[in-house]
Design a protein that fits this description.
456 residues; two-stranded antiparallel sheet; 78% helix; globular; transmembrane; cell division; cell shape
């Protein structure tokens, strides 16, 4: 009986995910506010039923009471987040909030299936980060001095990265964390704030040189620390913000050429870069060593097929570091390729919403922040999924909100809180524009009435 439930559950979970993904894109196009709110409520219901089905299956396969305890705690967390945002920020984007809850749900399901202790740690970190994130939107609206802290952002970022390079221990071939914290995750935010602050004041050649030097220091230290994934994310965010600010294709071309040259130099200078490229080119040739992870990942993806094997039916634990770098492969194996495609589309919906917010904000500082954070999010998703599927060499970054990683989850939730603050600012700008338009229309009508009175 349990095997029948498990088999049917994967189709139910897949159906719920497909409907949710459709809602992500259809809701954005919906102009009627009542209809849009109804679609957002339906998304919450879909998340609830997906979580209920998944955790029921995990419990039936393990009979571990901790699974039920974790499920209750998780649902309390989601309810608190949804209620508090509606109380404190009536103008917040509920679609962004729903997408955050959906991605966290997928991560919690897979982590609970792999290791309940890890899932519990992730939940505690997510709850703490969400508590901190509740004050960030109001900080974005009220603290106008954030734009003036340009060189403080740069100094903090470089000092923390240098401290990691000098003091951190090597883990999985790279220096990533200091006292259990990965500073590069937080520095993603300060780096974007630095670049946005600098370019919002001026975009002349002198400013470009200053920004390039600081960006080179960030990326260079990360490369020396062998944190290649973060280095690529920083570099991509800088290039996008540089091009948007200056609107000069030659800067973009020089940046791409410089990045390509740097990658070639890194290939010949650093052995770990050559190992990852070798594993990417032909993982079977180095299966016993650096190619083992990639081969196991591809086996898992192929085994899952379109519909997956069902929760607790596969062997994702055979993939090294599956909870961090290769959780996408575990999702493909047990929930299926179609579910994984829907997950990618939800991430794409996230990114498109951030870009839409950036395009509609008039303040250049906030516009660049939204674009920078959106670019970092998108490239982190691309690097994680691309590495797991052998599309690009593995860079060792996590899938935001889905993979296990305290620093990654916390920084992503804080980034989304900043985006929520920018969304609320955009709504304020729209209201102010509408108010001024109405006042101007009233003045025009008053002048017309006064003119008619004089003519009479």
């Amino acid at each position: 009986m349990i095997n029948v439930i498990v088999e049917l559950s994967k189709y139910l979970i897949l159906t719920l995910m497909i409907i949710y993904t459709f809602h992500c894109f259809y809701t954005v196009r919906q102009q009627d506010e009542i209809e849009r709110n109804e679609l957002l409520r339906q998304q919450m219901v879909l998340i609830f039923f997906m979580d209920f089905t998944a955790f029921l299956v995990i419990y039936l396969k393990t009979f571990n009471f901790q699974v039920i305890v974790f499920y209750v705690e998780m649902m309390v967390f989601f309810a608190a987040v949804q209620i508090l945002y509606r109380i404190f920020y009536k103008k917040a984007s509920l679609l962004l909030l729903n997408n955050m809850c959906m991605l966290l749900s997928v991560g919690f399901i897979m982590l609970c299936r792999l290791d309940i202790a890890t899932a519990t740690k992730q939940l505690v970190i997510a709850a703490a980060a969400s508590g901190i994130a509740l004050i960030i939107p109001v900080m974005i609206r009220k603290m106008k001095f954030l734009r003036r802290l340009t060189w403080l952002y740069a100094g903090v970022g470089i000092i923390l990265l240098a401290a990691v390079f000098l003091l951190a221990r090597t883990s999985y071939g790279a220096k990533l964390s200091l006292m259990g914290i990965q500073p590069s995750e937080v520095i993603k935010i300060t780096f974007v704030f630095f670049t946005a602050s600098l370019f919002s004041r001026a975009n002349d050649f002198r400013t470009v040189v200053q920004a390039t030097v600081v960006a080179a220091l960030h990326v260079g230290i990360l490369v020396l620390s062998r944190d290649l994934g973060s280095a690529v994310i920083f570099f991509a965010a800088y290039l996008v913000m540089l091009y948007v600010s200056t609107k000069k294709p030659q800067y973009l071309g020089l940046g791409l050429a410089g990045g390509s040259l740097g990658a070639v130099v890194a290939y010949f200078l650093f052995g770990h870069v050559r190992q990852r490229v070798s594993a990417w080119r032909d993982p079977m040739a180095v299966y016993q060593n650096e190619g083992y992870q990639i081969v196991q990942s591809l086996f898992a993806i192929g085994t899952g097929g379109w519909f997956g094997m069902g929760l607790c039916q596969g062997s994702p634990e055979s993939i090294p570091v599956v909870k961090n770098d290769f959780i996408f492969s575990a999702i493909c194996e047990e929930l299926g390729g179609i579910f994984a495609i829907c997950l990618i589309l939800v991430c794409m919906s996230f990114f498109l919403m951030i870009v839409n917010i950036a395009l509609r904000i008039k303040n250049p500082f906030y516009k660049l922040i939204a674009l920078g954070l959106g670019t970092e999010y998108a490239f982190q998703v691309i690097l994680t999924i691309g590495g797991a599927t052998k599309f690009i060499p593995m860079t060792g970054v996590t899938l935001p909100l889905v993979s296990y990683g305290g620093s990654s989850v916390m920084s992503t939730i804080l980034m989304l809180a900043i985006i929520q603050g920018l969304y609320i600012l955009r709504e304020d700008e729209d209201e102010e524009f509408e108010r001024r338009r109405k006042e101007a229309a009233q003045r025009i009508r008053a002048r017309e009435e006064a003119r008619r009175a004089r003519d009479i």
